[in-house]
């Protein structure tokens, strides 16, 4: 029974971080109890399992890289 | 001139982290040189400035919180 989550299933095979164009993290909410991670790869949206270690690593490195890119001049 | 970025302008006034439902981070890409951060607040999408310190803090805490929620049983 899909409680209107975005992700019905998650991809098990790791994705090369360079292929990821964006990452969306959705926190659990009334109509969907799951934390959901959706990435865009070559224009397609792919759901990843937030509990998988490779997903944590990919999301972490993507997040750090994008936020660091902006660090050279931090606007306070 | 909008090079087809998603964000024309970014919100300067800080948002309470609890109001954020999801966060999307888009890396710079051919048609948009900017790293973009889009959050959903009460069903509305709001662009944030990735260089602003308060944005970094909010994104960081959201990211950590959502990923940690899934840490109690990391699937390797």
TrEMBL record, chains A, B:
Q: Which GO terms describe its molecular function?
A: chemokine activity
So which residues are the signal peptide here? none
Q: Which SMART domains match?
A: SCY
Which organism was this protein described from? Scyliorhinus torazame (Cloudy catshark)
Asked if the keyword Glycoprotein belongs to this entry, the reply reads no
Name assigned to this protein: Chemokine interleukin-8-like domain-containing protein
Gene Ontology annotations for the cellular component aspect, listed alphabetically: extracellular space
Q: Name the family the entry cites.
A: Belongs to the intercrine alpha (chemokine CxC) family.
Task: State the compartments where it is located.
Answer: Secreted
What taxonomic lineage is listed for the species of origin? Eukaryota, Metazoa, Chordata, Craniata, Vertebrata
Annotated coiled-coil segments of the chain: none
Superkingdom of origin organism? Eukaryota
Residues passing through the membrane, by range: none
Using the UniProt record, give the first listed, main subcellular location. Answer: secreted
Supply one GO BP term.
Answer: immune response
Chemokine interleukin-8-like domain segment(s): 2-62
Task: Provide this UniProt record's keywords sorted from A to Z.
Answer: Cytokine, Secreted
